[in-house]
Design a protein that fits this description.
Blueprint lengths: L2 E2 L2 E2 L1 H11 L4 E5 L2 E4 H17 L4 E5 L4 H12 L3 E4 L6 H11 L3 E4 L1 H9 L3 E3 L18 E8 L5 E7 H14 L7 E4 L8 H9 L4 E4 L3 H5 L1 H8 L3 E4 L2 H8 L5 H4 L4 E4 L6 H10 L4 E4 L13 E3 L8 E2 L1 E2 L9 E6 L5 E7 L6 E2 L3 H7 E6 L2 E15 L2 E7 L3 E4 L2 E4 H10 L5 E6 L4 E7 L8 H9 L10 E5 L12 H10 L1
Helix pairs in contact: 1-2, 2-3
Bound molecules: adenosine monophosphate.
The site of adenosine monophosphate (AMP) has 17 residues, from strand 23 and strand 24.
Organism: Sphingomonas anseongensis
Protein name: Amino acid adenylation domain-containing protein
Pfam families: AMP-binding
Length: 493
């Protein structure tokens, strides 16, 4: 199974890395360290368990640690499709996912046992793996994983990612994350958020050490974790930088080991870059962009200290597409604005059991006289000097008294007044706008003064009538700012 038309298989990459670096540490979880040789054995025992159970789909309900990574790679080795579950997700959501997925095996502790019972699957207890390893280079399968994202209707949508799409992405990881033995890659995002795969495969397919954050304390003070574990590659949403800044820990003594910060999932702001480069001027920052439906990320803007001022328009440019992928701007009033439509080998097969939703978002797009299969992202963007800038989700465009307003434009103006983290939304039944700003570095907040400053930057109808201060904006399971929870908080005040 060494290679396919779409590139080298990710499991083959892992097996090669393990064979080349048997004594290097594959996973350091808390105080425990697992060499590549030991870790490969665990992967093979998981594969053996899945094989013996005749599994095609495996639901993985494990906390961060060596078992979860071994189960993910073991399912790939045995030719299964895996689905990672966030253990923090509410029981009804987890049950709904199990019901939609219909896995043959659910791996994990008590929670997994209950889920297995609810969907008539077999429960696999990590303490009871078969001793004999799965032999050989493994089997392949059409789908690498099915990842559930929250749908707008509140029902989780299962995004089906082909193995060839994941292989394409893991190939890119080899080129741009370029981890090698000696690299220490933090594992911060929940495994049910696809950007966790950047850490997992970026490290384990290339001989580096994966270092999960094991405690709430580390998650709350990530800069201390980075310093203690001498992390060389950090990957997360930019929200984590805001957290580090709030803790007053964006400092060289905490961050000096990091050679690369890879961001994805949310707009990266100039304030984030200023804070990182002030602390560690030699480091490299990636701003990557992508939806789950296009396998994690499909663009990359590489940023260095002193060379980014012209790459910020509200937020930092998302940069050019990675090799093999293309971004098209569709439906704008000129060719340099529109909805981002993605084409290329990383597109998902669609949504599990939902052909109508699949047909709505995955549609043909005309490119240079040819029709290609596109994924319509719902993200509005602009192109300036050949660089693409994410503006806003299309569903955030609002009309206030007849004026079309992109709330991001107002957010950018508020950021310009020294409040980097802000959510803007319609208020009073679309009669006006409101905003919530996050406390910034102990700064005094005066809403009428802020509104006065905005008068000079925005049309009067675009100045939020009500602005409130919050200590910390609500974040969702994936550490992204949670817009809906912010609005609920505002309305409850
Ligand atoms: P998810 O499927 O949860 O990864 O969310 C994908 C969405 O996150 C995209 O459609 C964008 O709206 C947003 N997103 C991802 N990366 C970026 C980025 N670098 N800048 C701005 N927004 C982003």
């Amino acid at each position: 199974m060494a290679s396919t038309a779409s590139g080298v298989d990710y499991v083959s990459r892992f097996l090669e890395a393990a064979a080349a670096n048997p004594r290097e540490t594959a996973v350091k979880a808390g105080r425990e360290e697992f060499s590549y040789a030991d870790f490969e054995l665990l992967v093979r025992r998981y594969a053996s368990a899945f094989d013996q159970a005749g599994a095609k789909r495996v639901l993985i309900a494990l906390a961060p640690g060596v078992d979860v990574y071994a189960a993910i790679l073991g399912s790939g080795l045995a030719g299964c499709t895996h689905t990672p579950l966030n253990l923090a997700s509410p029981p009804e959501k987890a049950a709904r996912i199990a019901d939609l997925l219909k896995p043959e095996v659910v791996v994990g502790g008590d929670r997994a046992r209950e889920l297995a019972e609810s969907c008539a699957a077999r429960h696999l207890d990590p303490q009871q793996l078969p001793p004999e390893p799965f032999e050989g280079s493994g089997r392949t399968t059409d789908l690498a994983y099915i990842l559930f994202t929250s749908g707008t209707t509140g029902l989780p949508k299962g995004v089906m990612i082909p193995r060839a799409a994941l292989n394409h992405y893991v190939d890119w990881l080899g080129r741009d994350l370029a981890c090698r033995p000696g690299d220490r890659v933090a594992q911060h995002p929940s495994i049910a958020f696809d950007i966790s795969m950047t850490d997992i495969f970026g490290a384990l397919c290339y001989g580096a050490t994966l270092v999960p954050l094991m405690s709430e304390g580390d998650r709350f003070l990530p800069a201390r974790f980075i310093a203690r574990e001498k992390i060389t590659v950090w990957n997360s949403t930019p929200s984590v930088v805001s957290l580090i800044m709030q803790a007053g820990e964006a400092e060289e003594r905490f961050l000096k080991s990091v050679r690369l910060f890879n961001f994805c999932g949310e707009p990266l702001l100039k304030d984030h870059l200023d804070a990182i480069f002030a602390a560690v001027p030699e480091t490299l920052v990636h701003n990557t962009y992508g939806p789950t439906e296009a396998t994690i990320s499909v663009t990359n803007m590489k940023l260095r200290a002193g060379s980014y001022d012209d790459k910020v328009r509200g937020s930092v440019t998302i940069g050019p597409p990675i090799d093999g992928m293309e971004l098209h701007l569709v439906g704008g009033s000129n060719p340099d604005e529109g909805e981002i439509v993605i084409t290329g080998p990383q597109l998902a097969e669609g949504y599990l059991g939902d052909p109508a939703k699949t047909a709505e978002r995955f549609r043909p797009v005309e490119v240079g006289g040819k029709e290609l299969r596109g994924y319509f992202t719902g993200d509005w963007a602009e192109r300036h000097d050949r660089l693409i800038y994410f503006r806003e989700r299309l569903d955030f465009q609002v009309k206030i008294r007849g004026h079309r307003i992109e709330t991001d434009e107002i957010a950018a103006a508020i950021r310009g007044c020294g409040w980097p983290m802000v959510v803007v939304f319609p208020d009073r039944g679309n009669e006006a706008l409101a905003a919530v700003v996050e406390q910034a570095d102990g700064k005094a907040f005066d809403d009428s003064e802020l509104r006065r400053s905005l008068q000079s930057k925005l049309e009067s109808y675009a100045v939020p009538q009500r602005i409130r201060l919050i200590d910390r904006l609500p974040r969702n399971e994936n550490d992204k700012v949670d817009r809906r929870a912010t609005i609920d908080w505002f309305n409850s005040q």
